[in-house]
Amino acid sequence: MRTHRFAGYLFILPALLFFLAFLVYPLLHTVYLSLTEWAGFDLKKITFVGFDNFKLIPPDWIFWKAMRNTFYFVVGTTVFLNLFGLGLALFLNNSTRFTHVVRTLVFIPVLLSPVIVGVMWSRIFDPFGVLNQILEKLGLIQTPIFWLGAKNMALVSIIGATVWQWVGYDMVLYLTGLQQIPEELYEAAMIDGANRWQMFRRVTVPLLKGVATMVILLNFIGGVRIFDLVYVMTKGGPNHNTEVLATHLYEVAFWFNKMGYASVISVIILAISLVFAYLRSRLMSEEKA
Question: pTM (2 decimals)?
């Protein structure tokens, strides 16, 4: 019996070592660095400063602007991803002719690197890019719009690019949930005289509540951690109007060489992500029960 138990431990040892090396150690090291002052070069020059780095948060106006932009980004992407994702899922669930083609086309952007998506949409949103050319030919604008250079349009443009890339992911999750709803429930509702809207409100929505909650939490986690798309498209500009927590972390760490303060921001991002991850795991546990 002991031999079998020892063999079992050997099988899980590689996964355990991977978990410790690439998840637990970086997490603990980041927390440690948040309590130190370090420029990121000489390991001998790490100075323990306690919670002094956390005191830099209140006066850091860029951090609070990044926090606000991250909030707007999370809310904006979550709302539109769920609206379009659910809408496409409902369309594909009721259509058999174009289901596979549309699902494939909408899901392709999910497989692309965010860097590629960022470069592509930067070209589209260029003042002389294809979007402005189309709008000018349609007579909707007279002068080019600076999508990524205007204060009120830059973050909206990034939200649009993000929705374009990830709507296919939400669509697949919602479509999976819709296909698990028994057809007999809709047939019973039709016999009772319910129209499409009533069936959607009384049958579809309640049975999709668990899926919708999970999708929303996943969107929240992804939104809080957004970095690559924002950095490629605007680098946080103009005037920090698209600055998010992750881009501010990058600037503090690699532009100003303040690894301790950057670790504080990293801990904050991690804490927010862990809250949503906990809610997601608790939701999944309740569904299994």
Answer: 0.91
Q: How is residue 133 written in tokens?
A: 């050319």
Tokens matching residue 287: 């569904």
pLDDT at 109 over 80: yes
Q: Is 9 inside a domain boundary? A: no
In a domain, 21, yes or no: no
Residue 15 within a domain = no
Confidence of residue 283 (pLDDT cuts 50, 70, 90): confident
- Domain CATH number, residue 242: 1.10.3720.10
Q: Which amino acid is at 5?
A: R
Split into its structural domains, the chain has a count of 1
Is 137 contained in some domain?
A: yes
Structural domain that includes position 155? 31-288
For 247-281, what is each residue's pLDDT tens digit?
999 999 999 999 999 999 999 999 999 898 888 88
Q: Which tens digits make up the pLDDT trace of 226-236?
A: 999 999 999 99
The pLDDT of residue 287: 66
